[in-house]
Specification:
The complex is a heterodimer of chains A (56) and B (456). Helix content of chain A is 82%, strand content 0%. Chain A has 56 residues and is an all-alpha fold. Chain A has one domain. In chain A, helix 1 (5-25) packs antiparallel against helix 2. The radius of gyration of chain A is 13 Å and the shape is elongated. Chain B has a single domain, classed as Hydantoin permease. Chain B has helices at residues 2-18, 34-44, 49-59, 64-93, 97-105, 107-139, 155-174, 176-205, 214-222, 236-245, 257-260, 273-293, 300-335, 344-360, 363-366, 368-395, 402-406, 412-427, 436-455. The chains are: A mainly alpha (56), B mainly alpha (456). Chains A and B meet through helix 1 and helix 2 of A and helix 8 and helix 13 of B.
């Protein structure tokens, strides 16, 4: 993967982590959906941010 | 006597070799930017224990107003303590507390200080392991210890803490530095876990999506001023003092000289606000909301799972591990002073074994607030002694660094003041959280008076 995308993908994952509870708070998604999205975005953060930090 | 003296000098030379790499004052080309300080403090103050501390304020019946005002003022006092007490000494000496204390109190007393630190670090890491154990225990239906528990309540809890302790210790042995880099990746995400968890459970507590009734819910369903059974009631003063002394050993106790020796100016102390307000205010508020959402049950694992699902549980585990890892390392470094020639892995294993045994005892986790108070209190007099020697002695024309100049192994005045202050603090008829403040002035004044009487 081109390393220039790693910071962007990491930050997008973190943004989704934050967006999921906001959507839950606003009642736009169910509790189960929020937990699933949060988990997926968290995995995304760890994958992309780990590669990003290695290449820095 | 000669054997003892030989043993002491052997320990001292071993200890000096361990800290050799930072023996010289930091040179100007090694100084760091303010941004680095902000990042360092922001990452350092969001730990697994934040899940417990914020929740305990709810269980101790703090009112919403007392919580917010207390945390605002208390954290401000902590930031000012770093800025006006720790950072100025750090930029003037450019030394770690270890080397500066060695000049003031002698190598013998520095060993005692290191050992005290090692024991305190092990207990702290043990509390982190216990908090993480509540997350794993959820999957195996192992009951979290009751708030009045001292000894382990079940075989399951003992096995769980031993397995997690062994895992954390093994990882610390395998590679502290690589894991520290991974901890940097974890840090912003763990902070998001707190925010996400609190936001997601607000509707369950009755907060509407326009946030208009937040204060009403906060004052009636979260920080409603009613303590749970068996917990004493906390006021604004307890909250304020707790936020102030939570890192007492680091600011007033001066162990953060190790960090501030790299600062360009003393005003860099203000960067600690980047750690205090997100970590010791926002995260504590979030964990308070989370515990209210699970019916005020002190179970960090349940709080994390209910508010953020499996990611929340992972967040709690990682928060425990990323903070236990450097704590185990520091404990190992401090323990190495009495285990000459032991390799790094063996010392870390010993620190990990002690920590794991301690983590089985739930008292360190369920009485975490009291332990944090004791931790700061025990090391605080050393900060007062160094402060007196650094700032007051030159003004009173008292000789500085007597231990170094006269080759003393022990500065007996310093040891007497340290132990005497702790004895007086132990007997003080006031709440544990408040004892350190009069204790600090007792240590400061008695060390100056003893030094003046020696001069005469």
């Amino acid at each position: 993967m081109d390393k220039k995308w790693l910071p962007a993908l990491s930050l997008i994952s973190l943004a989704v982590c934050l967006a999921a509870p906001i959507m839950r708070f606003l009642g736009k998604i169910s509790s189960e959906s929020y937990k699933l999205v949060f988990l997926a975005a968290s995995i995304g953060w760890f994958v992309f941010a780990t590669f990003w930090s290695r290449r820095k | 006597m000669a054997v003892m003296s030989g043993r002491l000098s052997s320990i001292v030379s071993q200890m000096d070799r361990l800290y050799e790499f930072d023996r010289e004052p930091v040179s100007p080309d090694k100084l760091q930017s303010g941004g680095k300080f902000a990042g360092l403090f922001a990452g350092e103050h969001v730990a697994a224990t934040e899940f417990v501390i914020g929740a305990f304020f709810v269980l101790h019946g703090v009112t919403a107003k007392d919580l917010f005002v207390g945390l605002l003022i208390g954290n401000l006092l902590a930031v000012l303590s770093w800025t006006f007490i720790c950072a100025p000494i750090g930029i003037r000496t450019r030394l770690t507390l270890y080397w500066y204390l060695r000049r003031i109190a002698g190598p013998g007393l520095t060993i005692i200080y290191n050992l005290a630190n090692a024991v305190l670090y092990c207990i702290l890491a043990g509390a982190m392991i216990a908090v993480s154990a509540t997350a794993v225990g959820l999957a195996f239906r192992i009951k979290t210890p009751a708030l009045n528990a001292v000894f382990p309540s079940s075989v399951g809890w003992v096995l769980l803490t031993i397995v997690i302790g062994a895992l954390f210790t093994t990882l610390a042995i395998l590679g502290f530095e690589k894991l520290s880099r991974f901890a940097e990746v974890c840090s912003p995400w763990i902070f998001i876990v707190f925010i996400a968890g609190a936001l997601a459970v607000l509707p369950r507590l009755g907060v509407t999506s326009n946030f208009r009734n937040f204060w009403e819910i906060a004052t009636t369903r979260i920080w409603n001023g009613i303590p749970v059974a068996g917990q004493d009631k906390f006021s604004l003063w307890q909250v304020m003092f707790f936020a102030w002394f939570c890192n007492l050993a680091m600011h007033i106790g001066l162990s953060d000289l190790a960090i501030f020796r790299y600062a360009k100016r003393w005003t860099y102390g203000l960067y600690t606000a980047f750690g205090m307000y997100p970590g010791h205010m926002l995260a504590w508020v979030c964990s308070g909301i989370m515990v209210a959402a699970v019916g005020r049950e002190m179970n960090p694992g349940l709080m994390a799972y209910e508010s953020a699902g499996l990611a929340g549980v992972a967040g709690l585990l990682l928060a425990g591990w990323t903070t236990a890892n450097p704590t185990l390392y520091r404990a190992g470094l401090a323990l190495q002073t009495i285990t000459p020639n032991w390799p790094r892995w063996k010392v870390t294993l010993a620190a990990g074994a002690i920590t794991t045994v301690l983590s089985c005892f739930p008292i360190f986790f369920v009485k975490l607030l009291d332990y944090v108070a004791i931790y700061g209190l025990v090391l605080m007099p050393v900060g007062a002694i160094v402060f007196a020697e650094h700032w007051v002695f030159p003004r009173l024309k008292l000789e500085q660094y007597s231990a170094e100049k006269r080759g003393w192994a022990f500065n007996w005045s310093a040891l007497g003041v340290w132990m005497g202050t702790l004895a007086v603090c132990f007997l003080m008829p006031i709440h544990l959280f408040f004892r350190w403040l009069p204790g600090y002035f007792i240590a400061l004044i008695s060390y100056i008076v003893l030094s003046l009487s020696r001069k005469r």
